[in-house]
Specification:
Enzyme class: hydrolase
CATH class: Alpha Beta
EC number: 3.1.4.-
Structural class: mainly beta
Shape: globular
Strand content: 35-45%
Helix content: 10-25%
Number of helices: 2
Order of helices and strands: EHEEEEHEEEEEE
CATH architecture: 4-Layer Sandwich
Protein name: Phosphoesterase
Radius of gyration: 14 Å
Number of strands: 11
CATH superfamily: Metallo-dependent phosphatases
CATH topology: Purple Acid Phosphatase, chain A, domain 2
Strand order of the largest sheet: 3-2-1-9-10-11
Keywords: Metal-binding
Distance between the termini: 15 Å
Cofactor: a divalent metal cation
Largest sheet: 6 strands, mixed
Length: about 170
């Protein structure tokens, strides 16, 4: 199964559409700050949460299950993701998730702490503390997750990501 993970598109739906067309994912997770009307989002299998800049009535956190794994999805602004990964890791554990997806910091992050994989895809529009906009792809086979990071044009960012087993 291929999952596309994006965040912080801040109204740049055209970039999101281009990425989806290139990646052709089975499911898309958007970690908030999409900053557009919900009906302008692509008509694909999609889990979306509300970021601190969003106005649409969507959940602030959600659970998605796929490929035998449970994903906790939130923007992260209420869990202090810019200062420590621990509050969001603990919330993911409370939600029974193996994978926690979040945004808000606009910085790509991927780390497994204990039995919880934390993934921030960065921002596809306005990176902070990183040279270029990013998104993440998850390839899941038999509860093994390969996380790769990419620039908007699809070029892989080799210094981020990894392979994680559950």
């Amino acid at each position: 199964m291929k999952v596309l993970l994006v965040s912080d598109s801040h109204g740049k739906g055209n970039l999101l559409n281009q990425i989806i067309e290139r990646v052709i994912p089975d499911h898309v997770i958007h970690c908030g700050d999409f900053c557009t009307d919900r009906d302008e989002l692509p008509p694909v299998s999609l889990t979306i949460v509300k970021g601190n800049c969003d106005w649409e009535d969507v959940p602030e956190e959600d659970i998605w299950e796929g490929a035998g794994l449970r994903f906790y999805v939130t923007h992260g602004h209420n869990l202090r993701v810019k200062t420590s990964p621990l509050p969001i890791k603990y919330r993911g554990e409370e939600m029974g998730a193996q994978i926690v997806c979040f945004g808000h910091s606009h910085f790509p992050f991927c780390e497994k702490i204990d039995d919880v994989l934390l993934i921030n895809p960065g921002s596809i529009s306005y990176p902070r503390g990183f040279a270029y906009p990013t998104f993440a792809c998850l390839e899941i086979v038999n509860k093994q997750v390969k996380v790769t990071y990419h620039q908007i044009d699809g070029k892989e960012i080799h210094e981020r990501g990894g392979i994680f087993s559950f």
